[in-house]
Design a protein that fits this description.
Layout (H helix, E strand, L loop, with lengths): L16 H7 L2 H17 L6 H25 L1 H4 L17 H22 L2 H22 L6 H5 L1 H4 L1 H10 L4 H24 L1 H7 L4 H5 L1 H20 L9 H22 L8 H28 L1
Helix pairs in contact: 1-3, 2-3, 2-9, 2-15, 3-5, 3-6, 3-9, 5-6, 6-9, 9-10, 10-13, 10-15, 13-14, 14-15
Length: 302
C-alpha cells in the first residue's frame, strides 16, 4: 500500500529589511520628521544635540510604528488599490504577524525612549499620536465615515507639538497653532489626492468624500477648509509669536495655496485632474516652506 503523503504547509514569507522600511511609509515620514524637528528648533530653549537627535528619532520611530500598524490592519483594502497593492503585506512578502510585532515593538520603544531621554510630557503626546492614528483613524473612522480625514488629521498634526514639548516640557500657544495648521491643512491636502484616485478608494470600499458625496461637494469642502487653515497659518505673526520672516513667508505661500484651492473649488470642467494634482503637490511643499521659515525666524531674529 502506498503511504498517504500529507503536503507540508507553505512556509511563511520571509521579509527583508526593505520591506520593514516600506512598512514605516518613508515618504510620509519625511514630512512628519521635518515638522517635528521644526517644532523642537522653534522652541525658546537650547537643546543638547544628542537629546534633540534622540527626540527626533523617537518621533520618526513612532510615525513608522503607526504606519506599520496601519498597514497591518488595512492589508485587505491595500490589496484592492492600485497605489498600495505593492506594499509588503498585500504583495505577500511579509506575514501579518511580523508587521504587528514590528509596529507594537517600535512604537513602545519610541515612547519609553522619549520619556527617558527628554520628558514624559513629550512621551505622553507621542503615545497619544500613535494611538490616535491607529485606533481612531485606522480602526474606527477610515472605513465608516467620509469625515475620516477631517478627524483623523489630528494624528499627523502632533509632531511639531511633540518636538516643542521635548525641548520645553510644556505646550504653549504657538505649538497649538502649529497643530491647528496641520489639522486644517490635512483635508484639502488629502481630498485633492482623493479626487484623482477616487476609483481606487471606491474599489476598496473606503468612504472617502469624493466617493460618497461626489466631486462637487469635495471641491467645495477643499475651499471651506482652506479659509481656517490660512488663518491658523498666518495667526502666529499678528499674535507676536513669530517675527516678520515667518509672517511674510506665511502670507505669500498661503496666498498661493488659497489661489490654487480656489481653482479646484470653482472648477466646473471634469476633464483631467491637473489642478487637483498641482494643489496636492504644492500642499506638501507649502508645509516644508512654512515650517522652514518658522525655524529661520526663530534663529535669525532671536
Amino acid at each position: 500500500m502506498t503511504p498517504t503523503v500529507t503536503p507540508l504547509s507553505a512556509a511563511p514569507p520571509v521579509a527583508d529589511w526593505r520591506d520593514f522600511v516600506a512598512l514605516t511609509k518613508p515618504r510620509v515620514l519625511t514630512l512628519v520628521v521635518f515638522t517635528g524637528l521644526c517644532g523642537l528648533l522653534a522652541a525658546p530653549v537650547s537643546v543638547h544635540p544628542v537629546i534633540g537627535f534622540t527626540a527626533i528619532l523617537c518621533i520618526a520611530m513612532a510615525a513608522g510604528a503607526a504606519g506599520a500598524l496601519n498597514q497591518w490592519y488595512e492589508s485587505d483594502i491595500d490589496a484592492l488599490m492600485k497605489r498600495t497593492r505593492a506594499r509588503p503585506l498585500p504583495a505577500g512578502r511579509m506575514a501579518r504577524e511580523s508587521a504587528l510585532h514590528f509596529g507594537v515593538g517600535l512604537g513602545g520603544f519610541s515612547v519609553v525612549l522619549m520619556g527617558l531621554a527628554t520628558n514624559w510630557v513629550a512621551a505622553a503626546i507621542l503615545l497619544v499620536s500613535i494611538l490616535f492614528y491607529v485606533m481612531v483613524y485606522t480602526v474606527w473612522l477610515k472605513r465608516r465615515t467620509p469625515q475620516n480625514i477631517v478627524i483623523g488629521g489630528a494624528a499627523g498634526a502632533f509632531p511639531p507639538m511633540i518636538g516643542w514639548a521635548a525641548a520645553t516640557g510644556d505646550v504653549t500657544l504657538l505649538p497649538v497653532l502649529l497643530f491647528a495648521l496641520i489639522f486644517l491643512w490635512t483635508p484639502p491636502h488629502f481630498w485633492a489626492l482623493a479626487l484623482f484616485v477616487q476609483t481606487d478608494y471606491g474599489n476598496a470600499g473606503v468612504p472617502m468624500l469624493p466617493v460618497v458625496a461626489g466631486e462637487r461637494v469635495t471641491r467645495h469642502q477643499i475651499g471651506l477648509y482652506t479659509v481656517p487653515m490660512a488663518v491658523a497659518a498666518i495667526a502666529p505673526w499678528p499674535l507676536a509669536l513669530t517675527g516678520w520672516i515667518y509672517g511674510s513667508v506665511a502670507v505669500a505661500t498661503t496666498a498661493i495655496f488659497a489661489a490654487m484651492a480656489a481653482v479646484v473649488t470653482f472648477r466646473t470642467s471634469d476633464e483631467g485632474m491637473k489642478p487637483e494634482k498641482q494643489l496636492f503637490k504644492y500642499s506638501i511643499l507649502y508645509l516644508f516652506i512654512l515650517f522652514g521659515a518658522l525655524v529661520a525666524d526663530r534663529w535669525v531674529l532671536a
